[in-house]
Amino acid sequence: MSPGYLELYKSGELLKRKELLFKHYTECSLCPHTCKVNRISEKGICRSGSTVKIASYNSHHGEEPPISGINGSGTIFFSGCNGRCIFCQNYPISQLNTGKEVTDAQLAAIMIELQCRGCHNINLVTPTHFLPSIVHALAIASEKGLHIPIVYNSSGYARVEIIQLLDGIIDIYLPDIKYADNTTAYELSGFKNYVDHNRVALKEMYKQVGKLKIVDNIAVKGLLVRHLVLPDNLAGTDKSMEFLSREISHDLHISFMDQYFPAYKAINHEKMSRRISEDEYNISLDFFYASDLHNGWIQQHLEQ
Ligand code: SF4
To answer: Whose CA is closest to 281, among 252, 256, 263?
Structure first.
C-alpha cells in the first residue's frame, strides 16, 4: 500500500499544499489559537519561529504495538507546543523549547535516515506549529525515495481547516482526546474551546483515513485516538468515550492509558498532584466498555 503523499507529490499537489500552509508563517492560524503573528519576526503562543526546531529523533519502541512494530516508529520530536499542559512530561521540549534548528532539507534527510534504519513510519510528534516546513520536507524526501507512512501525533487541538489541507498527506492520525469540558481544558492545558475543535478535527481525520488498517501487524492507514485517564475524571472519560462511539464509530481504535503521573506544575495542583487510583482506572475502563467501543489497547501500568 503506497502512502498518499507520494501520489500528491507526483501530481504537484503536495507543493501546492505547502504553499498554502506557508502563508501561515506570515499570519499564523495553524492552530485554534489563531495568533495571527508573523512568525518570521514574532512568536505566538507556541513560542516558535518559522525555522523548524527539533529536540530529538529516533527509532521508538514504546508506541502502540502496530505503530512501533518490530523495528520501531521513526519519531521526530518537535520543540515548542501550542498547549500549556501543567502536567507535561516533556516540558523541557514543549515549554522550555529545548532543541536544535534544522532546515527543511535537513528534516527531509532525517526522514530518509529513519526509513533507512528500518522504521515502519515517520512519527511527527507535536507537529502542528511547523506544518508548512514539514510538508516542504516531505516533498524533498519524496524525491529522495521516502515511501513509509506518515503519522500525525498530536494533542488533538487542531483547526479543521488545517486538517483538511492534510488530506492525502497524512496516513495515520494519532491524536489525543484529552478533555470533555472546555473550562477544564483551559485550566489544565491553556486550550481555548478544546472540546469543540478537538471533536470536529477527529471527525475530519476519520473521514480522511477511516478505521485503522493493519497489515502484517503494522498500521498502514487510519485513525487511532489516545486517551489518558486523569485524577478525579478530569479527562471526562465517560463523555469522551460516548462521543467517540456515538459520533465516530464503534470500531474506532482507542489507546486507553493509565500512566498519568504529576510532572511539571501538576505537583502543586489540588487535584492533579497524584497518580490515579486503581478504582478510578477501573471505573474509567467501565466507561470504555459501556460505550460499546470494540478496539482498544488497554495500557495498564498501575501497580496492582
Ligand atoms: S501555531 Fe503557534 S503562532 Fe500559530 S496560531 Fe498556533 S500557537 Fe499561534
So the answer is: 256
Whether 303 shows a pLDDT value over 50: the answer reads: no
Residues contacting residue 73 through CB under 8 Å, at least 6 positions apart: 59, 60, 61, 63, 67, 119, 120, 121, 123, 151
- CA–CA separation, 109 vs 117, rounded Å? 12
| Superfamily of domain covering 4-18+51-298 | Aldolase class I (3.20.20.70)
pTM for this entry: 0.96
What residue ranges do the domains of the chain occupy? 4-18+51-298
Q: Whose CA is nearest to atom 2 of ligand 1?
A: 46
The DSSP code for 176 is: B
Alpha-carbon gap, residue 77 to 61, rounded angstroms: 14
| Cα–Cα dist 44/163, whole Å | 20
Note the helical H segments in 12-81: 13-22, 65-68
Query: Which amino acid makes up residue 1?
Result: M
Cβ neighbours for 144, distance < 8 A, ≥ 6 positions apart: 108, 112
Tell me the C-alpha distance between 237 and 32, whole Å.
Answer: 23
Grid cell listed for 32: 485554534
**Do 59 and 118 form a contact (C-beta atoms < 8 A)?**
yes
Enter the DSSP assignment of 177.
-
Question: Which residues approach ligand 1 with their CB closer than 6 A?
Answer: 28-31, 33-35, 37, 44-46, 82, 128-129
Cα separation, 59 vs 73, whole angstroms: 5
Note whether 293 and 241 are within 8 A (CB). yes
DSSP 211: B
State the distance from the centre of ligand 1 to the C-alpha of 84, rounded, in angstroms. Answer: 12
Measure 79 CA to ligand 1 centroid, in angstroms.
13
Report the pLDDT averaged over residues 112-133.
Answer: 98
Residue 304: band (very low, low, confident or very high) from pLDDT cuts 50, 70, 90: very low
Question: What 3-state DSSP class applies to 277?
Answer: coil
